[in-house]
TrEMBL record:
Reactions catalysed: beta-D-fructose 6-phosphate + ATP = beta-D-fructose 1,6-bisphosphate + ADP + H(+)
Protein name, per record: ATP-dependent 6-phosphofructokinase
Positions of beta-D-fructose 2,6-bisphosphate binding: R519, T576, L577, S578, N579, N580, R614, Q621, G622, G623, E681, R707, R782
GO process annotations (BP): canonical glycolysis; fructose 1,6-bisphosphate metabolic process; fructose 6-phosphate metabolic process
Family that this chain belongs to: Belongs to the phosphofructokinase type A (PFKA) family. ATP-dependent PFK group I subfamily. Eukaryotic two domain clade 'E' sub-subfamily. Belongs to the phosphofructokinase type A (PFKA) family. ATP-dependent PFK group I subfamily. Eukaryotic two domain clade "E" sub-subfamily.
Length: 817
């Protein structure tokens, strides 16, 4: 371990409150980033309880003989050996082992390799607990004493609103705690002045997504995955027996999980705390809605109840009571499923790993930037950016939702949620409407064509389902265009057909493309495209696809002068696993692909680790866009990533080989980890996956060998991820509204020149005119310019140790070539 000096920052990290998937990834990121930035890093086991208990039999691990390394790397002498062993060694955690050795010791110094392999493990490996003592001042005083005894001056707390409230109290009270400790002579005046300030940074780990001032909390996306898997499974048995299921999901004060699951799984009804049912007689309101679904031919009924659901009088709505009503009033064979702790379990999904990693890194930066004048921060996510917000304000605002609900001010409670929450809720409502109470006047109803373009992507069907349901609720006719533009051109057959409410019912969870899709484009046959749109009286067109869909809308727009049939309102929902549509931060399908990549890499990593000394070269799809490779590398803990944007050259590959040699040489004998490289299929035409694999085999000698794995089409994913499904629904509603608005003004006499791509920019949804997209399009390489994720490549290098260990050049230096 590194010898500390006076100025070395000592950071401790703890996890507290309810566990959440992704907490380990956050601890890992704090540890690695802290070490990279020259700090000493400690983990506190068992949350606040561990901090209060401190270290009883403190036996310093530093006196142990250093573990035997796998072998020396005889390369560049000035970067070899001890210097790196210092950073890359094991800390007390691995040296002590997890069992008896840790008895009585709760605060341990960690080394780089202590957190190896933590990314894909659910829960929290450093333990969490609820701690009554910390709620009392004496408990917090002891915690402060333990921190000061070890010289720790910064604390990163990963937990829910309770844990962060505790952190905020510790921050507020710090000076008075020090006064008391000095008065009782537990600390010296010198210690008091040295520790006059404690830097506290909060990271929100909470599966409910109930913290204000951040759009998402660590663990919520994974919980949503678990819920969706469960509700999808329940769906098939419900359908078989024509049953109703009432599913209880977590969410004491926040309906995020229920809304997202309802949308992603195509549920029929939801109950959440922030928005009680409209009428006092909610039982009849619910029964009427569900009855109409059954009358439309549905064989299953799914009702999702958030654990904290309330009626207008704040009376809890409980699943057993809901089930009773359904049985008695609708004579449905009804079962209750309480998902409970299953929702906390399992591997973190890709998004949680990414979120936790980025927030852990930012927490360390916040600690290092802190001065006595800066406030304590909570690391949040706003507008797709990791941001620091005031911990005190966030704690206060979070309590605001609860207060509003208590005062029955439900509008206020909803307003305190972010706009995405409200849009998702609206999308859910529309997806369940049957009947004509939301129909537009006769003259404003449209025939809206829906077409899939290009390769399939997870969430295309969910988008189509939502678009169709929204159209039907508004009185429009949703027209399915089967088999892409080829299907549209076909004279014979039934290439264009209206979609019915029931027909799309099960499409939310289906992968692939229910409509059928291919790479044919309008430019291949403009005449037939125009004729078909006219023949079918199509008033507006929704295209769902990747770069092809963007190309198609450009073509149609540009040909408007010659083809009046194209003078209709048109919109594109970007849907592609490559996430290469310019301007948008996320395309539908990219989250599914990222999860498929993460799952595949977990399996590969396991195999690589089992054989102790293997490097896997994993090839991903993505065309000339490195999104999937880069973000995938960060989410899986890959050691190196190669992308088409930066390309590859001899110098780079050479320094990567040096890095791997040094890294393997630093492993403790017999404990070598499997390592892997992610290479986008188009990263280089010379340094192919095969070439790289063979070269590593040759160069690794006794230190490591290598294998290749090509993920190919598996990345399209099987079942689309719930995030993709919910995102697809939200975008579909916005697009149909856009088509509606523009067509209405056309009917009023204005010329309809609208053609837009719906994009997510700084986390906000916007219908961007095609020209806006073209401005940032790199058509030659079929990708956008300057995407938001470019800088993440640097983090891959930092967190894999490459940045520290490699001589020669670093990857991002190629950016300026
Ligand atoms: P979560 O962090 O998941 O919301 P809890 O509400 O149970 O979970 O809080 C976890 C721990 O944080 C508690 O056991 C307690 O030690 C501490 N804590 C919670 N609220 C406070 C508070 N108001 N003051 C001091 N400590 C608190």
């Amino acid at each position: 371990m590194t010898k500390s000096n006076e100025n070395t920052r000592k950071i401790a990290v703890l996890t507290s409150g309810g566990d959440a998937a992704g907490m380990n990834a956050a601890v890992r990121a704090v540890a690695k980033m802290g070490l990279y930035r020259g700090c000493e890093v400690f983990i506190v086991r068992e949350g606040w309880a561990g901090l209060v208990a401190g270290n009883v039999n403190a036996a310093p691990a530093d006196v142990r003989p250093p573990p035997q390394r796998a072998g020396k790397y005889h390369g560049n002498q000035d970067v070899e050996g001890e210097k790196f062993a210092a950073t890359f060694g094991e800390g007390e955690l691995l040296q002590e082992g997890a069992g008896e050795g840790l008895k009585g010791r709760h605060i341990l110094k960690v080394g780089w390799d202590d957190v190896r392999g933590w990314m894909d493990i659910g829960g929290t490996l450093i333990g969490t607990a609820r701690c009554a003592e910390f709620r009392e001042k004496e408990g917090r005083e002891t915690a402060a004493f333990n921190l000061i005894s070890l010289g720790i001056d910064a604390l990163v707390v990963i937990g829910g609103d309770g844990s962060l409230t505790g952190a905020d109290r510790l921050r507020g009270e710090w000076p008075s705690l020090l006064d008391d400790l000095e008065k009782s002579k537990r600390i010296s005046a010198e210690q008091r002045s040295k520790h006059a300030h404690l830097t506290i940074t909060g990271i929100v780990g909470s599966i409910d997504n109930d913290m204000a001032m951040t759009d998402i909390t660590i663990g919520a996306p994974t919980a949503l995955h678990r819920i969706s898997e469960a509700v999808d499974s329940i769906g098939s048995t419900a359908s078989s027996h024509s049953r109703a299921f009432v599913v209880e999901v977590m969410g004491r004060h926040c309906g995020w999980l229920a809304v997202m699951a309802g949308l992603a799984c195509g549920a029929d009804y939801i109950f959440i705390p922030e928005r009680p049912p409209k009428s006092e007689d909610w039982e009849s309101e619910m029964c009427n809605g569900l009855k109409s679904h059954r009358e439309h031919g549905k064989r299953k009924t799914i009702v999702i109840v958030a654990e904290g659901a309330l009626d207008r009088q704040l009376k809890p709505i409980k699943p057993a009571y809901v089930a009773d009503i359904l049985t008695k009033r609708l004579q449905l064979d009804t079962r209750v499923t309480t998902l409970g702790h299953v929702q906390r379990g399992g591997k973190p999904c890709a998004y949680d790993r990414l979120l936790a990693t980025l927030q852990g890194v930012e927490a360390v930066e916040a600690v290092l930037d802190a001065t006595p004048q800066t406030p304590s921060y909570m690391i949040g996510l706003k507008e797709n950016k990791v941001k620091r917000v005031s911990l005190m304000d966030a704690v206060k605002a979070t309590a605001g939702v609860g207060d509003a609900i208590e005062k029955k001010d439900f509008d206020q409670a909803l307003q305190l949620r972010d706009p995405e929450f409200l849009e998702n809720l609206e999308a859910f409502d529309y997806s369940t409407i049957v009947g004509d109470n939301k129909h537009l006047p006769e003259g404003q109803r449209l025939r809206i064509g829906i077409i899939h373009v290009g390769a399939p992507a997870g969430g295309m069907n969910a988008a189509t389902r939502e678009a169709a349901r929204f159209c039907l609720a508004r009185g429009h006719t949703p027209l399915a265009i089967y088999n892409g533009f080829e299907g549209l051109w076909a004279e014979a057959g039934n290439g264009v057909q209206p979609l019915s409410w029931l027909q799309v019912d099960n499409w939310s969870s289906r992968g692939g493309s229910e409509l059928g899709t291919n790479r044919s484009l309008p430019a291949d046959d403009l005449d037939s495209t125009s004729k078909a749109l006219q023949n079918h009286n199509i008033d507006a067109l929704l295209m769902i696809g990747g770069y092809e869909a963007y190309t198609a809308i450009q073509t149609l727009k540009n040909a408007r002068t010659n083809y009046p049939a194209f003078q209709i309102s048109m919109a594109v929902i970007p849907a592609t696993l490559s996430n290469n549509v310019p301007l948008t931060e996320f395309s539908v399908g990219s989250d599914t692909a990222l999860n498929a990549l993460v799952d595949a890499c977990d399996a590969i990593k396991q195999s690589a680790a089992a054989s102790r000394n293997r490097v896997f070269v994993v090839e991903t799809q993505g065309g000339k866009c490195g999104y999937l490779a880069t973000v995938g590398a960060l989410a899986t803990g890959a050691n190196i990533v190669y992308t088409p944007e930066l390309g590859m050259d001899l110098g780079l590959v050479q320094s990567d080989v040096e890095f791997l040699k040094r890294r393997f040489a630093l492993d403790v004998k017999g404990k070598s980890d499997g390592r892997f490289i992610i290479r986008n299929e188009k990263a280089s035409s010379v340094y192919s996956t095969e070439f790289l694999t063979n070269m590593l085999k040759e160069e690794g000698k006794e230190l490591f060998d290598s294998r290749a794995a090509n993920l190919g089409h598996t990345l399209q994913g099987g079942t689309p991820s719930p995030i993709d499904r919910a995102r697809a629904c939200r975008l579909a509603v916005r697009c149909i509204k856009f088509l509606e608005d523009n067509s209405t003004s056309r009917q009023a006499g204005a010329k309809d020149e609208s053609a837009a791509v719906i994009v997510i920019e700084n986390g906000q949804v916007r219908l961007a005119p095609v020209e806006d997209v073209s401005k940032v399009a790199d058509d030659k390489n079929r990708r956008g310019m300057d995407p938001w994720w470019t800088h993440l490549k640097h983090l891959v290098e930092v967190l894999s140790g490459r940045r520290t260990l490699a001589g020669g050049r670093h990857h991002e230096e190629r950016m300026n070539k």
